[in-house]
Design brief:
Strand 7 and strand 8 form a beta hairpin. The protein is globular and about 40 Å long. By secondary structure, the protein is mostly beta strands.
């Protein structure tokens, strides 16, 4: 079992920044690809960013490229999502997820999910 706990969400104005963290416990963190997903009200959960277990290989959905950066610290068992130039359409609950031995954009490859953290961007 892997437990994931997100933090860092909040209310920010358009153009502002937030840094999300996801702390993992339970298994060897570097064995897991990590992803960030988000879900806005009445919408499907969508892929945002992902990073391979070693930290090499990052993936982003087009709408966040150049604004968001995913990174990880395997010594601290933590993955981060730095979000800059935030827009109202980034408003959602953000979830981190862990995939054993894999990384990608599809939800089904992820074995474990956190409870989510709310990000609200005001216009």
């Amino acid at each position: 079992q892997v437990q994931l706990v997100e933090s860092g969400g909040g209310l920010v104005q358009t153009g502002g920044s937030l840094r999300l963290s996801c702390a993992a416990s339970g298994r060897t963190f570097s064995n897991y690809g990590m992803g960030w997903f988000r879900q806005a009200p009445e919408k499907e959960r969508e892929f945002v960013a992902a990073i391979g277990g070693s930290g090499r290989g990052t993936y982003y959905t087009d709408s966040v490229k150049g604004r968001f950066t995913i990174s990880r610290d395997n010594a601290e068992n933590t993955v981060y999502l730095q979000m800059n130039s935030l827009k109202p359409e980034d408003t959602a609950v953000y979830y981190c997820a862990a995939a054993y031995g894999a990384v990608g954009v599809q939800k089904y490859i992820y074995d474990y999910w956190g409870q989510g953290t709310q990000v609200t961007v005001s216009s």
